[in-house]
């Protein structure tokens, strides 16, 4: 299983997702362009010493990412019509999250094998990117029996 971030804009979110990947044993794919310089100290500060325990792959664009990662793509979006708690994850799924301000464009969403929405109460817009990734990954790993022991 992998986490993919489509054009992330906030260095702290990327750092938090990298730390999540390190703790859960899941690689992280970053689809560029990003909204910050890769050497931004906020990435390292948020990921802390966990940065050396996660596989991170950067891709210059979505097409290059898909060529390198042809597996089942599960997109998390506020536009999703199914909950991750009603979905059957597979061990080699790629859990993708869009940019913080705009998600993913329609042509990218159309390439997803599933589009899921994490349920939240009415009147609020969405979770933070790293929180969404943690909720989604936790459920996916639980379902597949891959939670770290």
Descriptive report:
The protein is built from five helices and six strands; from the N terminus they run βαβαβαββαβα. The two termini are 16 Å apart. α2 (41-47) links the parallel β2 and β3 (56-59). The chain has one domain (2-144): SPOUT methyltransferase, trefoil knot domain (Alpha/beta knot), CATH 3.40.1280. Helix content is 32%, strand content 17%. α1 runs parallel beside α2. It has helices spanning 11-24, 41-47, 62-68, 106-109, 129-144, and strands at 2-6, 27-31, 56-59, 73-76, 94-97, 114-116. It is of the alpha/beta class and 149 residues long.
Please tally the β strands and state the result: 6
User: What's the rounded overall pLDDT mean?
Assistant: 93
Structural class from helices and strands? alpha/beta
> Are there runs of 5+ residues with pLDDT below 50, and where?
none
SSE order and pairing:
Layout: E1 2-6, H1 11-24, E2 27-31, H2 41-47, E3 56-59, H3 62-68, E4 73-76, E5 94-97, H4 106-109, E6 114-116, H5 129-144
Parallel strand pairs: 1-2, 1-5, 2-3, 4-5, 4-6
Looking at this protein, list some descriptive labels.
149 residues, alpha/beta, Alpha/beta knot, six-stranded parallel beta sheet, globular
């Amino acid at each position: 299983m992998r986490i993919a971030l489509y054009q992330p804009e906030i260095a702290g979110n990327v750092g938090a997702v990298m730390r999540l990947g390190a703790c859960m044993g899941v690689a992280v794919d970053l689809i560029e362009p990003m909204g910050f310089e890769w050497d931004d100290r906020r990435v390292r500060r948020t990921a802390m010493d966990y940065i050396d325990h996660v596989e991170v792959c950067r891709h210059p664009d979505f097409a290059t990412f898909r060529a390198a990662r042809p597996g089942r793509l599960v997109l998390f979006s506020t536009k999703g019509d199914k909950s991750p708690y009603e979905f059957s994850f597979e061990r080699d799924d790629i859990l993708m999250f869009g940019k913080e301000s705009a998600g993913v464009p329609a042509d990218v969403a159309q390439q997803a094998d599933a589009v899921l929405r994490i349920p939240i109460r009415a009147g609020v817009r969405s979770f933070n990117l790293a929180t969404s990734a943690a909720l989604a990954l936790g459920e996916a790993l639980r379902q597949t029996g891959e939670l770290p022991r």
